[in-house]
Backbone:
């Protein structure tokens, strides 16, 4: 019975409510654009197919900690700024809305400092590529968050 | 062109390379990264008696070779069973490992030592790092202190102390263990440091003396021995000896869980031994250039080997991978689990219902004959000049069976020797 009710409701939305709404709406934006306008300022920005592949590789991290034994940044960056290379794979890459909190670490890390960490990683997480991806995503999140609020129509 | 190419640089690969080199072969070791050896507890678990009831610690105080024979008798797929005719050389292989890592490992023990783990249990161990051996439950004095670093809540000295008392009771001996808190690490950032960093800090000049003086203030005379978290030096095991001298009582490290300073110490000692022996270590993915050949793409070039030792490990090392199906990625060798083909098995069918159960998935690997040749589906050697060593071999779970590094050393030693023999025979024929 619940399924039937659900299906009927979806049919009503698809056949009546949405077409009528589209007919009388003054919002010219596509559904995708409206989605981006809603979520991008919160940090949920689009990810390319290549970057999705990179995230798949990042998911191989088993948090064994070996990268941190050879992490060139740990001895030089304050611990309150950066807490080890595995964070790139198991933390920063998992939630773009939180990327601005990692800004200090991402700005001060260099690829050179991750060379040895990447070489010893048992599951071959591409730490340096991940750093590049996270920086690109951070730029995008910041750009989206700086968009004027009046560009996003309020319903 | 080289006589022997060893693929994999953990315990099995390193011992195979060292053994082949010691018998006169030209050896190259190629590995893609560090593997399970660097994540190990740091102790060499050779064998425990599988027929002993759980918790019967006294039954584990047997010579490791005897326990290995019992494993061979009761587990027909285990590498010890496949190589049962060669088991009388187990101690020889362990001695070879100890001789090559003299700065780290003790000689093989006459009986299993019971070494404390960070989980409050004890682990039967056939060979150990010298910094661990003082923690043997059998030889610990009646009163023991377990050091708790004030900044390290992940390491629970109270649990270890109560676990030790319970294990001692199972042995029928009296032991009291108390927590001794150290405030040596007291900077705010110390709380965020991982074990590798803490170990490196203890390697700094004067650090161990400061740690000892901090502990002296908190120790009572009744504490006969001290057990430390496994961070006593990133580079070697001398800090335990130094602390023993400074504190006037035996000091030892507890075994480690990953991330493991003793495990990394073991790996780095193997690397140092390879360099001392003149074995080049190439860090690269390895790919077979053509089927039925021994030519490999490696680090942008190619290499041909007369004999090959496959010591690529299991899931962590990359010797067995699983993307929808299980696969041995270099030679595409047939894989087995529990005596049956594994490639297309549903992973759920290879897992036991309980955590403590026998998970066949961790036994997936290549099947070998008594000469360590990987076998094809008809049970024939794939290639008389290809050998397998370590956890890429099927039939045992390196962690749960408590035979992990013991099998790695034993099979690495035999495979290295056999690969050297066939390659040198081939050279002579040429």
Residues:
């Amino acid at each position: 019975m619940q399924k039937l009710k659900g299906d009927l409701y979806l049919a009503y939305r698809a056949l009546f409510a949405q077409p009528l709404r589209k007919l009388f709406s003054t919002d010219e934006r596509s559904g995708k654009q409206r989605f981006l306008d809603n979520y991008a300022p919160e940090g949920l920005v689009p990810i390319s197919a290549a970057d999705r592949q990179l995230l798949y590789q990042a998911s191989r991290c088993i948090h064994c900690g070996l990268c941190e034994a050879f992490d060139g940044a740990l001895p030089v960056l304050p611990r309150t700024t950066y807490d080890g290379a595995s964070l790139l794979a198991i933390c920063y890459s998992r939630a773009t809305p939180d990327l601005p909190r990692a800004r200090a670490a991402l700005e001060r890390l260099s690829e050179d400092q991750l060379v040895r960490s990447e070489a010893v990683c048992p599951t071959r997480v591409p730490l340096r590529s991940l750093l590049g991806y996270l920086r690109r995503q951070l730029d995008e999140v910041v750009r989206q968050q700086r968009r004027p609020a009046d560009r996003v129509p309020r319903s | 062109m080289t006589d022997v190419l060893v693929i994999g640089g953990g315990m099995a690969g390193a011992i195979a390379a060292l053994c082949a080199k010691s018998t006169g072969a030209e050896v190259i070791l190629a590995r893609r990264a560090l593997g399970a050896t660097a994540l190990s507890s740091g102790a060499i678990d050779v064998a425990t008696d599988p027929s002993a009831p759980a918790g019967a610690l006294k039954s584990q105080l047997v010579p490791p070779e005897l326990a290995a024979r019992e494993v061979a008798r009761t587990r027909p797929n285990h590498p010890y069973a496949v190589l049962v005719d060669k088991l009388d050389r187990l101690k020889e292989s362990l001695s070879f490992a100890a001789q090559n890592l003299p700065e780290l490992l003790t000689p093989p023990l006459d009986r299993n030592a019971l070494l404390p783990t960070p989980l409050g249990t004890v682990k039967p161990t056939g060979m150990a790092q010298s910094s661990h051996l003082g923690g043997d439950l059998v030889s610990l004095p009646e009163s023991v202190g377990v050091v708790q670093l004030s900044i390290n809540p992940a390491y629970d000295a109270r649990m270890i102390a109560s676990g030790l008392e319970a294990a001692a009771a199972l042995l029928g001996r009296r032991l009291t263990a108390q927590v001794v808190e150290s405030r040596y690490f007291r900077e705010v950032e110390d709380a965020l440091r991982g074990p590798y960093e803490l170990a490196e800090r203890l390697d700094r000049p004067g650090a161990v003396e400061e740690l000892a003086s901090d502990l002296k203030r908190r120790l009572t005379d009744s504490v006969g021995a001290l057990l430390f978290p496994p961070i006593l030096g990133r580079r070697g095991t001398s800090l335990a000896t130094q602390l023993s001298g400074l504190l006037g009582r035996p000091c030892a490290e507890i075994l480690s869980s990953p991330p493991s300073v003793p495990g990394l110490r073991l790996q780095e000692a193997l690397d140092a031994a390879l360099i001392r022996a003149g074995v080049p270590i190439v860090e690269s993915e390895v790919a077979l250039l053509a089927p039925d050949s021994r030519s490999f793409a490696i680090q942008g070039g190619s290499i041909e080997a007369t004999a090959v030792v496959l010591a690529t490990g299991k899931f962590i090392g990359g010797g067995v991978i699983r993307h929808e199906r299980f696969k041995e990625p270099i030679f595409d060798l047939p894989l087995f689990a529990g005596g049956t083909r594994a490639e297309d098995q549903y992973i759920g069918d290879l897992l036991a219902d309980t955590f403590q159960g026998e998970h066949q998935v961790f036994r997936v690997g290549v099947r070998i004959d008594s000469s360590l040749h990987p076998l094809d589906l008809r049970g024939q050697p794939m290639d008389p000049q290809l050998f397998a060593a370590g956890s890429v071999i099927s039939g045992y779970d390196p962690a749960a069976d408590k035979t992990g590094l013991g099998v790695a050393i034993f099979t690495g030693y035999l495979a290295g020797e056999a690969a050297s023999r066939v390659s040198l025979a081939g050279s002579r024929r040429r």
About this structure: Chain B touches chain A through 22 residues (CB under 8 Å).
